[in-house]
Amino acid sequence: MLKVYDIDVQSRLLLGTARYPSPSILAEAVRRSKTEIVTVSLRRETSGGKSGGAFFELIRDLGVRVLPNTAGCHSVKEAVLTAKMARDVFRTDWIKLEVIGHHDTLQPDVFGLVEAARILTGEGFKVFPYTTDDLVVAERLLEAGCRVLMPWCAPIGSAMGPVNPTALKSFRAHFPDVPLIVDAGIGRPSHAAEVMERGYDAVLLNTAVAGAGDPAAMAEAFALAIAAGRLAHKAVPLEPRDMAVPSTPVIGKAVFS
Amino acid sequence: MTLIINGEEQDVAAETLADLLLALDYEGEWLATAVNGELVHREDRAAFPLGAFDRIEILSPMQGG
């Protein structure tokens, strides 16, 4: 069971709610993923509150825990205000903190991220920071009061999968007791299984599911891969070797010449 | 009175933030509001006075990753 900020959840898949072909497909993907946590956002309302209201009710009906984000925020001030507004709407102290530093790669502004995290934890938020795999930044986030870390494995929406497995391995080794959720860059269930095998605690996905030909089926495929990866990690997988090792014992082998 | 509402100038007759939401047909427990960069809780909107060229943000839930 995964524990984040004193909340126990069975599913190790956190699912984004954006870019699905329709609300009903989103709902079906959430159901088949068996996720207990979905990410949501806030945007300017232009139609008298009607469009946001429909989405709000859809999410409420799914019966899952909500993790609002600060996606699209490029400054500490924007991110902090968005977090406060999200808390006012969703009635949760949880916030997926994004402070974007680069338009093309959507790489986090890690300096702003740490500053915003410190402000928000001081105001009672439980911060889930979207960060890089930089160990020093991660240390600063923990010092700022974060109790979960969410390193990327590749740029948001890129579907590349883990581009720096060595960094992910090091990150896990440096923070053995911190819940680590790989956020961003996962493209396929095999990528999710890979990071789970490496000991990550959970995976946060969106585009890889929403952009699939059959999002609901892909959501289930990810759930299975994440469960398999977790089981494999607990079973302690072999490390790769440079040389062949015979799997069949050679002792007692007949000699025919 | 001229206000900047979600980034656009509008002339609206409203003395408070609650008046403004009513005048523009914004309604729902899912709305979040801020004035001049500061959050205004829903329960404080009725007593929150507006001034000319105040910058008002009205946000609502949407899909996110």
Describe it.
The complex is a heterodimer of chains A (257) and B (65). Chain A contains 9 helices and 10 strands. Chain A has helices at residues 23-33, 50-62, 76-90, 110-122, 135-143, 165-174, 189-197, 207-210, 215-234, and strands spanning 2-4, 7-9, 13-16, 37-44, 65-68, 94-97, 126-131, 150-151, 181-183, 202-205. A 5-stranded parallel β-sheet of chain A has the order 5-4-3-10-9. In chain A, strands 6-7-8 form a 3-stranded parallel β-sheet. The termini of chain A are far apart. The model of chain A has no long low-confidence stretch (mean pLDDT 95). Chain B has 65 residues and is mostly beta strands. Chain B has a domain at 15-49. The radius of gyration of chain B is 11 Å and the shape is globular. Chain B starts with a strand and ends with a strand. Chains A and B meet through strand 4, helix 2 and helix 3 of A and strand 3 and strand 5 of B.
Task: Give the topology, please.
The complex is a heterodimer of chains A (257) and B (65).
Chain A: E1 2-4, E2 7-9, E3 13-16, H1 23-33, E4 37-44, H2 50-62, E5 65-68, H3 76-90, E6 94-97, H4 110-122, E7 126-131, H5 135-143, E8 150-151, H6 165-174, E9 181-183, H7 189-197, E10 202-205, H8 207-210, H9 215-234
Parallel strand pairs in A: 3-4, 3-10, 4-5, 6-7, 7-8, 9-10
Antiparallel strand pairs in A: 1-2
Chain B: E1 2-5, E2 8-11, H1 17-23, E3 32-35, E4 38-40, E5 55-63
What is the number of beta strands of chain A?
A: 10
Give me the side-by-side strand order of the main sheet of chain B. Answer: 2-1-5-3-4
The global form of chain A is globular
Mean pLDDT of chain A: 95
Basic shape of chain B: globular
Please give the radius of gyration of chain A in angstroms.
Answer: 20 Å
Q: Based on helices, strands and strand pairing, what is the structural class of chain B? A: mainly beta
Backbone CA Rg of chain B: 11 Å
What are the segments of chain A in which pLDDT stays under 50 over at least 5 consecutive residues?
A: none
| Biggest sheet descriptor of chain A | 5 strands, parallel
What fraction of the residues of chain A are assigned to beta strands by DSSP?
A: 15-25%
Question: Which sequence of SSEs, written as H and E, runs from N to C of chain A?
Answer: EEEHEHEHEHEHEHEHEHH
Structural class of chain A: alpha/beta
Number of helices of chain B: 1
Measured distance between first and last alpha carbons of chain B: 38 Å
Helix content of chain A: 40-55%
User: In which range does the helix fraction of chain B lie?
Assistant: 10-25%
Order of SSEs of chain B, N→C?
Answer: EEHEEE
Task: Outline the low-pLDDT stretches of chain B.
Answer: none
Please give the number of β-strands of chain B: 5
